[in-house]
Write a structure and sequence with these properties.
This protein has about 230 residues and is α/β, with parallel strands linked by helices. It contains ten helices and ten strands.
């Protein structure tokens, strides 16, 4: 479904992503783990068209997307839940969802909103509430719900557990698993490596902008080097 080949991304003179390659197949949860500054968020931004790679190739659904604008990628079935949620703070919950479906017909938007509310009953209860007044967990549910408004084939999630209490982290990861079981392919960036590996099929480990290891999630959960570096020993 998604194939990234030897991409190199720079911030000015800083070489942030170095010859990174990975693949995500339909129906998978693939996670990228690594320390802060490893290049994980930069990779997601590059795939979603917010940044451009200086070299390399990105293919989505067998089409090159190296120079495709971000909004066109959304139309093609790629959705991005950014780090920090980035909801529209001054709009209501429902207005945020409507923004997520802005390219679709009113009838389709209404049906999809109903589907999102069925999946997230808590945000349905708050549909008229200003989004900036929601709790952190509710805002994350809204950000995920907004991403689903475009009926994506692949959802990229950047640090969905950031700043959440442990009980909410469990809930968010349960939602990610349920989404995947319903047919949505997931590319996940997550600092909580143990939780990410517990739900993922495969994992790529990044260090200073490079992929240094890749394997099934179960293999990496049992890998002594990964345990020491990312799982607290």
């Amino acid at each position: 479904m998604l194939k990234v080949e030897d991409i190199n991304v720079y911030y000015g003179t800083i070489h942030a992503v170095k010859n990174v390659s990975f693949e995500v197949s339909q129906g998978e949860i693939v996670t990228l783990i690594g320390a802060n500054g490893a290049g994980k968020s930069t990779i997601l931004k590059t795939v979603s068209g917010l940044l451009r790679s200086k070299s390399g190739k990105i293919t989505f659904l067998d089409k090159s997307i190296d120079s495709t604008e971000a909004y066109r990628l959304t139309q093609q079935g790629l959705s991005h839940v950014p780090e920090g949620r980035r909801i529209f703070q001054q709009l209501t919950v429902e207005e945020n969802l409507e923004m997520g479906g802005y390219m679709r017909s009113n009838e389709d938007v209404r049906k999809t909103i109903d589907d999102v509310y069925e999946r997230f009953p808590r945000i349905k209860e708050r549909r008229r509430q200003i989004a900036g007044t929601l709790s952190g967990g509710e805002q994350q549910m809204l950000a995920i719900g907004r991403s689903l408004m475009s009926r994506p084939r692949l959802v990229m999630m950047d640090e969905p557990s950031m700043g959440l209490a442990p009980v909410l982290v469990q809930q968010i990861f349960g939602i990610i698993r349920e989404l995947n079981e319903s047919g949505v392919t997931i590319l996940l960036v997550e600092q909580n490596a143990r939780m990410a590996l517990s739900i993922a099929h495969r994992c790529y480990v990044l260090e200073t902008g490079r992929v240094i290891m890749s394997a099934s999630a179960n293999e990496l959960l049992d890998n002594d080097e990964v345990k020491k570096a990312y799982l607290g020993g």
